[in-house]
Design brief:
By secondary structure, the protein is of the alpha/beta class. The protein has one domain: Spore Coat Polysaccharide Biosynthesis Protein SpsA, Chain A (Alpha-Beta Complex), CATH 3.90.550. 28% of the residues lie in helices and 26% in strands.
Length: 214
């Protein structure tokens, strides 16, 4: 790795749909968060783990730095950003809830940055379902062309200064690429992996356990 790469693993969620803090649930002899931190090691010189405030003093799950998150995902990423060394050239943001992300995904998004393809790179998969837009009364208002759609995953990689600038406005979004888009920077899409699914429910956790066993 020639560029200085750091990663932020976002693990500060409350796990409301899961019923507990899913990021710390046992998985494959470790925890969900620890698997995600380990995945980042394939591309990063250092890893910042962002957790709920009452977990900062607990086990570090293999991270170099552990910090408390904020009330929203974007705030939590900014907490992580503040801990990333200023000399970092590329910053990878990864959701702890995607513990099965392979080294090839981390490598691909970082390579897109270091090769100058774009200042931001995300991995995403094709959309196979028909997607419709509905109004508050659940009436269909449009059917989208799925050939122009992708389902976005993490890891996502960014030129460090671009990610810092994107978060400088203290905006909110469901992923960091959306904030980068708002400042007019180009985001490229790298083919994702269906195996890199997000753990949202206990059923997903059991699926992840089977994947690790298989």
């Amino acid at each position: 790795m020639s560029a200085q790469v750091w990663a932020i693993v976002v693990a500060a969620g409350a796990g409301q749909r899961f019923g507990q803090l899913k990021q710390f649930a046992p998985l494959g002899g470790s925890t969900v968060a620890a698997h995600s931190v380990a995945g980042c090691r394939s591309c990063a010189h250092g890893v910042v783990l962002v957790v709920p405030a009452d977990h900062v003093e607990r086990a570090d799950f293999g991270a170099d730095i552990v910090v408390a998150g904020g009330a929203t995902r974007s705030e939590s990423v900014r907490c992580g950003l503040a801990a990333v060394p200023e000399d970092a050239e590329v910053i990878v943001v990864h959701d702890a809830a995607r513990p099965l992300a392979g080294a090839h995904l981390f490598g691909a998004v970082v390579e897109a940055i270091t090769n100058g393809v774009a200042p931001a790179a995300i991995c995403a998969t094709e959309v196979f379902d028909t997607i419709k837009v509905v109004d508050p009364a659940r009436r269909v208002t449009a059917t989208l062309d799925r050939s122009t759609l992708v389902a976005v995953q993490t890891p996502q990689a960014f030129e460090a200064q671009v990610l810092r600038r994107a978060h400088g406005g203290r905006g909110e979004a469901t992923d960091d690429a959306a904030l980068v888009e708002r400042i007019g920077a180009t985001v490229v899409v790298i083919p994702g992996d269906t195996a890199n699914f997000k753990i949202t429910t206990t059923t997903d956790l059991r699926a992840a356990e089977r994947a690790l066993e298989g």
